[in-house]
Fold this sequence. Notes:
This protein is α+β, with helices and mostly antiparallel strands.
Amino acid sequence: MQSADFREQKGEMIAKQFGWVRRIDEHQYKVHSQSRDFEYEVQSGELGWLCSCPDSTYRHAECKHIIAVRLSFILRRIVAKEPIVIQAVTVTNCPKCASESIKKHGIRHNKHANLQKFQCKACRYWFTVNLGFEGMHATPQMITSAMQLYFTGESFRGVKNFLKLQGVKFSHQSVYNWVEKYTELMESYLEQIRPQLSDTWRTDELYIKIKGNMKYLFAMMDDETRFRIAQLVAEHKGRDDVRPMFREAVKVAGKKPDNLISDGAANFHRAFKKEYATVWAEGPNHIRDVRFDGTVHNNKMERQNGEWRDREKVMRSLKKDDSPVLGGMQIFHNYFRPHMGLGGRTPAEAAGIKIEGVNPMITVIQNAAKKGKTISEPKPSN
């Protein structure tokens, strides 16, 4: 019988071997045998971690394979990169002379908003800041609150009625215009940021109505962080080519997954073989035997599909395949919606992306608008 110290040493050796510990989901792992070309199953249950090897099955000991899984958690934390921080935009210098010697200089009252004025102590120039929301009749708080309401399930007309209760009159078309404008702005900025994703991804489809016709919304999600990596609208479930979504997922993540979990749809397997599979024995693994009552299930993906289903019930139908609502929902899910399964964090936070500021949506919009623009809306003094 192996001693505890000997099993610990063996487990450490397995954990350090590339590809020998494969994560299926948070409850199931595959661990390569040291003596033959075979993988043991390590699963978590009510009594803790269990392995299919004889050491665990018959001696009820913490075998080297369970130890390797435990050590893999520690190794993943060590190699994790520093989080990406999206900082709130602040006024630091004068737009005219670039001096950092500035001070607040009262409030400019507009019809729909009050803007903080600043004055440069060096050149006496005063200016206001409304980055990303220049020329908008509504305040940044109104616009982002309206978008938050819409993406959490309210209709465009419902959002309009909410704003009316606040004493602000805007049409439902204005709310749609905000969603369209700022979804595009945030997409162009966030697509440059690479999330830190796990090695196991999930993919599934959702039957939704677009332009009065039922179509399929395919999506790819990271198992550990719930980050929605890519999505695609198609006509048919099992026949249409979903390879563009597979390629987009690799572009976003900067890597291919070690494991892909899906149902038995043929187009998923065709895309997997073309885009992810390799000639090496230790290449990516496609898990297709997904059942609600099985050891491998797709409950996380089904839960995420429920968010889109709730949104579709309110709006009844999307008007076009490339509707900004789809991109906006993806951004809202990834960056602004806390998840109980992640301890109240957003998928972006779980993927190493931190957004600072009281209103994270304003922070992202202002950072997106800051690229190639000044941070001010200058007004000459009299």
